Amino acid sequence: MSILNRRTFMGAAGSLVALSAFGRPALAQGTQIRHFWWGNPERDKRTFAVIDLYNQKQSDVTVVGETLGFADYFTKLTTQIAGGNMPDVIQQGYGVLFEYIANGAVVPLDDYIGNTLDISRIDQSAIDAGTVDGKFYALSIGANSHMAMYNTRLFEEAGIVPGETFDPYGYTYDELREFAAAIKEATGVPGTDDNTADYQNFSDFVGQKGAMLYEEDGSYGPTQEIVEEYWSTWENIRNAGGTPPGPESAGLSGVAELSQMGVVTGKSAMTYLWSNQLVGVKGLMQDKLGVAMYPNTPDMIPGSVVQPSQFVCLTRDSVDPEAATAYMSAFVNDLDMTAILGLERGIPSQSDVRAALQPELTEVEALSVEYFDKIQGKTAALPPPPPSGANEVEQTFERLAVAVLLGERSISEVAGDFLNQARAILARA
Hints:
The protein is of the alpha+beta class.
């Protein structure tokens, strides 16, 4: 997955202090490995317990944990980069990883694979996400995926049976239109939320059509035809009765509160979110939830992607890369350690770990893990992180999509207006 050469990150050097040539600290007795992460009380408790367990299993290596809240983490890391004293192992997110690679703050792991680092049971989607320009830099410690969550009672009342009349891991937009309308006819509840104003689903649709959301030069990738087709696809589902009325959906444009999602309020039978929100949604409902991927195109090109929630990376300043990568390997593979970590950072990207955790999970947690196992090899490639200005583009999309939902202007007219504004936003960002 060659990502870095599609986008220039060196221009972001101002966000990270230039690397220092300061020497590495001298080793005292034995080897001490420092692990730095952003956390919260629950994450910190689990991670320190894992470090204690690892230290009990080792005789010549001691791991020391360091943690800060998210707001302070990157500020501290920037200072450490400038001083040449970064911890051996740091936590990273997908959106900022590439800056640290471009500046040399984190280094490739390829030389350690098969020696101190075991990735043989890591999902290929996670390996791809951590690979840049053919080199493996980042080890996933938790993953997240697009997920459609549906009310099983309403599906059953309409005779929509997963595995028989409905394939949760391989249905199309056309099939969604058909069963969403059937659910409305049988139950009075529309079968799906209307994603006309959902930028995440639109982003996936762009990829399904073989285009890039953002081009190598940071310009906008979707064509007029793609935008029109996306909105027309949801218009067809809406006109079939499969979604709530347009004005009702327009009132929810940009709303992120789980309590307002259609599957929670009972105003629709299916809602589209991220898999780490499944537990939260279930906590707001009485009915049982089922899960599915986002819809495919007619030629079965998938829309759902898997995105690591966090990585661990080896830094340029590591005092002992072999010891550090051995610890990283245990962090994702050791069943005693991963039992402590659980699902706090997301779904583990290691299949044996997911299987080992399964018996201790709640029903909804187990459903989330089962979903991850079933979508392996069926998801789309993870696109590069968005450039500066992307948030404003998203807000513009949501605002203009309301005009489509209200029928105020033609899809063609709104699509042209959106593209003009999106291109202007990115040009000045």
